[in-house]
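REQUEST
  id: r-88c1
  op: predict_structure
  target: AP-1 complex subunit gamma-like 2 isoform X4
  payload:
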Amino acid sequence: MVQSDHSAVQRHRPTVVECLREVDASLSRRALELSLALVNSSNVRAMTQELQSFLESCSPDLRADCASGILLAAERFAPTKRWHIDTILRVLTTAGTHVRDDAVANLTQLIGGAQELHAYSVRRLYSALAEDISQQPLVQVAAWCIGEYGDLLLEGSCEETEPLQVEEEDVLALLEKVLQSHMSLPATRGYALTALMKLSTRLRGDNNRIRQVVSIYGSCLDMELQQRAVEYNTLFRKYDHMRAAILEKMPLVERGGTQDEEIKESKEAQLSEASLVPTEPQASELLDLLDLLDGTSGAAQPPPPLEPSPGDVLVHLLDLPCDLPSASPPPASIPNLRVFEREGLQLNLSFVRPPGTPALLLITITAINTSEADVIHFICQAAVPKSFQLQLQAPSGDTVPAHSGLPVTQLLRILNPNKAPLRLKLRLTYNHFGQSVQEIFEVNNLPMETWQ
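RESPONSE
  id: r-88c1
  status: 200
  body:
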């Protein structure tokens, strides 16, 4: 009847809702299905309140369906972002273990896109986490939010919530409690560890406590946690000058699975690989490398469609062997190109176009140091226009030895399906003769053979 005459069934909504409280499980299940089908934009607040009350008392075998139904209805008919966030938080608090797998990603996406609610959200989540750390999806969202917006948690009071006095020690102790809890899943501990690392740039106090906790997990039996901890320790020890920029707030990721999203993920991966940590830099000190090229050419234009299809070309890119030589000799038809030279440090580019994949260009960056002093903490990052796809592999090292010692090489894979003229933006950071150096420049004189 709902499909053929929705308004007629709506008149019986109070009776349907009343049947949710029936002892007969089969009847309450059918009442739940019909109640979810009756939710629309005009009654979403009242129906959601009824369904949440049912969620708190229903049998365990109905909780997953009820929680998923509430989340879907809220996503479709939410009148405001704040109401949407409050609804998801209540579901996570009540039945967090029964929600869909994408509930965590959806809520972080929602909070990230509501800048005016960042302070409100982080305070609500902190309070919920302080009361209960057993609901794993809730703990994951709370840890993510505290890591991103921990500075707002410590800034006075929020008009939309009750006064809440939070000290830095309280926040760190709560995240440590999550890490040590036997109820925490490995993924939850990963969220908490990353949150602690991000708080190292958001709190004003000493970071020694955070460093000690991170170092402990460098020998964790869980490989994912161990890898994160080792990389974060490396960030503290060797790349501390970049830590604040690398751990900035996450950029908002648009949803939809479009080609633009795939290109964005590819570019985020290139920056994270270059920085040796699994978080994406944005704006400020890193100067938003992904937008540098667009800024020089006016408003960004949407990338043209790939031919014959994005899937086919990406398969070729991903199927290439990962152990390609980092310094393969280029064909004679594509000459090498020197793009940078300063105080004995030289940067040369060599090119290879695999015969079986004409749309792919392999560029080997070779750094040579002819000076008297080593170049240390050497990092090379790259960006291309949005119509290209770039994969930046890890360098062979971060020290370029003096006196023309063993060079540092790094491989770039650039997909150019439209055979457009290639422009390349490079960013170099390193220490030389005791001074920190940063160079950003554009390479516009690449040989025609690299793209024609």
